[in-house]
Design goal:
The complex is a heterodimer of chains A (about 375) and B (about 290). With about 375 residues, chain A is mainly alpha-helical. Chain A has 2 domains: about 30 residues, no CATH class; about 260 residues, Orthogonal Bundle (ABC transporter involved in vitamin B12 uptake, BtuC), CATH 1.10.3470. Chain A has 16 helices and 4 strands. Chain A has a two-stranded antiparallel ribbon with strand order 1-2. In chain B, α1 runs parallel beside α5, α2 runs antiparallel to α3 and α9 runs parallel beside α11. Chain B is globular, with a radius of gyration of 19 Å. Chain B has a two-stranded antiparallel ribbon. The longest helix of chain B is centred in the first third of the chain and has 29 residues. The termini of chain B are far apart. Chain B is built from 11 helices and 2 strands. Classes of the chains: A mainly alpha (about 375), B mainly alpha (about 290).
Chain lengths: ~375, ~290
Amino acid sequence: MTLDIVWLFRWFQESVMAVPGRVVALIFILFLFLLPLITTDPSALRIITLTSIFALYAASWDVLSGFTGQVSFGHGLFFGVSAYTSAMLNKYFLLPVWVTIPIGSFGGILVGLIAGIPALRLRGFYLGLVTLAFPIILAGIIFVFPDVTGGEVGIYGLTRLSGSPTLNYYIIVLIMICSLLIMYKLTDAGSKFLRTGLIFRAIKEDEITARASGIDTMKYKLVAFGASGFFAGIAGGLYAHYMRVAGPSTLELFFSFSPILWTIFGSMATIYGPVAGTFILFPFMEIIRFSRFGEETRYIFFAFILILFLIFMPEGLTVWVRDKIEIKCQRCKLINIMTRKYCRACRAPLHMEEENYLIKEKGGTN
Amino acid sequence: MFISILINSLVSGGMFAILAVGFSLVFGVAKILNMAHTAFYMVTVFLIFITMKILGLALPIAAILSIIVTALLGIVCYKLCFDRVKVHQTAVMIISVAIAILFQEIFLIIFTGHFRRVPPFIPGFVTIAGVPVLNQHFFTAGASLVTLIGLWLLLSKTRLGKAIRAVEQDIEIANLFGINVSRISMLVMGISVGLAGIAGLVIAPVVVLHPLMWTGPLVIVLAAVVLGGMGSIKGSIIAAYILGFAETLVVFLVPGGSFLRGAVSLAIMVVVLLVRPEGLLGVAFEEERL
């Protein structure tokens, strides 16, 4: 027993505390869990709850477009279908929340597979523009049948997730963290248990080579679409029950672009990128909203920040920060903190390129 | 009925064609997926409103002034933003979305959300087979055709057009042959945004002015570009007219059709792409491998 604890402690010290990125993630998760103890202000909790839902939504976009390279400009479809499915089941069949959200997410998978069919023949921006079509077509259909779908207002008056805002907060944050972990493992190219991460990356880099290596790319593309639809669906169901309304705004153009904005701001093809992007941009927007001229000017600030950051960090914020604080050992591929001179496992010098460069410089002057 | 469907689809098809040509030109040459393309069109429409109704300038001066200002705005955006990050295509796209949001919000603050109108350039109407047709509609349909022919002449008959087509086909080889690629890209951005401006000019008296008016055309322009085959200018013109016709048909014939106008064009696009993934006139492109 004591040995276990010692082992756990060693593991913690060696593979969490030694990697700066994991420390940041740990602090972030602790902060999320401790936040209700610091403040019980309902509006602060509300902002962070909504941010968590949207972070999940943005991460699901990243699984599909960042990792697998299947650009989706219509991600609102998965979110919206799940939100509407949960809302209708709850409103018309009076099903409880813990039934409607899973069924809604399975609706997300189904729609993901349907939207994935064109993906088998199209690639790149072509595919993006076709996926853009689906939510708008669905929105058109929803407006034509206002009796069932509620038209412009949507379906409102749904059951709450739970009685208190704090409990809502914990439910949503927990679901978000679990889903993010699953997505992280699903897309981790170095994983020992799942091949999907590696295959997704292979499809993104070079589909023909992937197919030549015996990978059924069609199957794995559909897997990516299904997984992405599932997680976006969870976010959609949670959103519908948290806001207690499922409206056509979830199918609008801007709602499909939002996860792309957050993800690219945070960095593509990393699960932490979209989370960081959402947790910076969304609360920032809400805070500006409460300032003096905030309501009108907040999108101007938003656009300015987006443009400035992307001009100076075109690969996104987290990759820029990561490259500043972490360095990969060139011999054993282990991640080290930037301040180290030698790798913590194999003692190979870390900043080799720069030293060589300096030697060459000196040689040149002689 | 038939006459009004025809003239309305020529009007909206012409506008979509000019917008789609500009969009596919800048995508083909400068590799910019410019989501702000229709936002520039919105800017021109508002500039015409400012110059004509507030400053009280005459139509030709107002038109030339607004188009030049819009084109310059496009070049400034290219130099300040797109040019610096053009290696990262996704960053370029997101920046263009941000620029579109920026324009929309600035105009929302200046003009609030009220609906406004520009008076027709040519007042009055003609009766054809018992159907009154506004002169303005004739002007819009005709002017868009003239613009498209002008663009075709520019691309096929001039040295600049040759250079643009060369860059579109192969950037590296064009560079090797002494074409200044970055200058051509800048010029194409200016031409493309200028075309968006012309679309705004011809359509200004027909539509209702609102800072959010760019999202609807954006969707249809994207659909037209994909439907025609990305990079094929002829294809996007044909596709734009097809979509304009389909949209008008739905609005006129289906009850509650105005909700479905975007949906129908997109449904047509999806169906065509499932049958012909490269679009109507596009070439089945080989995957570019590095």
